[in-house]
Amino acid sequence: MTSFGDLRAQLAGASPALPTPFDQDGAVDYAAFERFCDLQIEAGAATLVVCGTTGESATLSAAEHRELIRRAVDVAAGRVPVIAGAGSNATARAIEMARAAEDLDADAILSVVPYYNKPTQGGLLAHFGAIADATALPVILYDVPSRTACSLADDTVVRLAERPTVIGLKDASGDIARPARLRPRVGRDFRLLSGDDATVFSFLLRGGDGCISVVANLAPGLYGEMIPALRLGQMARAQRHEIVVARIAAALFQETSPSPLKYALGLLGLMTPTVRLPLVGPSDPLRTELATLVTTLCNRYPQHLIGASRQPPEPARAAAGG
Questions:
Q1: Is 170 a catalytic residue?
Q2: Are 272 and 266 in contact (CB under 8 A)?
Q3: Catalytic, out of 30, 116, 170, 263
Q4: For the whole prediction, is pTM greater than 0.85?
Q5: Does the annotation count 116 as an active-site position?
């Protein structure tokens, strides 16, 4: 298990929010998942984030959830930390998931704001406090109000950050001013992570530490170039990569994630585009747009793609009319 200090250092980079591959019948394709984990580590992933929103966690059985974490830990083999999604809108269930992740040797958990229930800030303090008390694993809070209809207030984040095992926040609110507001109140060791690819550049520029990214699944090399450039103050270089990240994000979030992402990865032959209901595949116009995007990335930025693809795969060329 990674130490708290090592994990905080790792979180200064880009971590892919991993999709869960399914076969054509909707069963988890564990072999494809393991291959994809290995590709991400080879591409420089800071950590592996498993069974989160992008992993369609809401549709996974408890057994599938545990098996995905176990396999990610086995593939990582200590090379990078594994962060396990362990969120639920039932606190008792979230505690069960956190303890299961701990038993499976995950390095930390990602715990989302309870969805649907719409708890008060007092309820959120009690919810996350109970989870932190129930596990020795580091806890990363996850604020994604577009999906939960409820958000973590800054004051609540500050109070939770006082707990030694609550080590960071994944912020998918799109509020680029938040790092500047929170940093003086939570200290340097608390990790502020962007969970919104469309605004990650501005988030990092204003004091964020790293990101948990959907785009990094497709083009991890862009973050591998952009984040170090930002750290070195090489703004022109960083912005060149940010423009491409923003274009990819616009396509991948045009319809509900992870459907567009899995379609794009399917064009690269890395997994099927299958998603579980109630999600469905991308619309026909978006499929054409994604095929064009993948072809462009293969032609112009092959070194930045997952697996370092050197030419457009046949499915992408055909779908794009190439």
A1: yes
A2: yes
A3: 170
A4: yes
A5: no
